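mind reviewing both lines:
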Amino acid sequence: MKKQAPTFVKWAGGKKQLIEQFKPLFPEKINRFFDVFVGGGAITFFIIKNYKPKEVFISDINEELINTLNIIKTDVENLIIELKKLKSLHSKEFYYKIRAEDTKLLSNLKRASRFIYLNKSCFNGLYRVNSKGGFNVPIGSSKNPLICPEEDLRKISQLLKNAKIEVKQFYEIEKEIKKGDFIYFDPPYYPLKRESFTTYTKEVFLEKEQERLAKLFKDLDKKGVKVMLSNSDTKFIKDLYKDYPIKIVKANRMINCDGKGRGKINELVVTNY
């Protein structure tokens, strides 16, 4: 049985809960793997651990996330030390002090520890920024949040040791990917309701961006790349990928301020193989 993956953050739309449903959908062999909306990284960590691809390319436009992954890869022991310090100082007052810090004045290590600390202690593990890119989620209700998942951080550091990790737009990958490679797309989901939460950066990802991603999907298909994509169960998305196999998976909707809005929800998985 293929093993589950470690995690280092909570993430809106995180895929750890869906890995069991995804297993039959992955290709049998993976030689070069690309994940361009890496998010919490559950799929990437699972694939590295179980398929041992020769090359792994990870990217996202979230600079704080990519910096954190690079620090986990290269400096995990000092990161653990920093997180233990933050854990020992955790309080409501301290949370808002750390949240107000200007990341431009911090070292990459301090930025990474701040990122994980805020994620682990904020409301619902939600990542949200304002129009200036400032993190603006209030503190969560947990009195004793798991701020330093020491064992998982060390496991992830090992998994990432040969991965290339970069800040990059999804469409920039086209020139690097080639026939036989496998790419997984997990973009910000098209909203079930137009006013819904759809992004974890200050950029939006709506019709125009979804259409550009669908064109890239088709172009990669023509190139002989194996492509897998997750998105919301909406007519708009089904129409974009109507020429490809579409499977439905059941996900738990975890982030909703109204507890009644949580529960099982259909999501789509599109493949070209």
About this structure: The first helix runs from residue 19 to 22. Residues 255-261 have pLDDT under 50 and may be disordered.
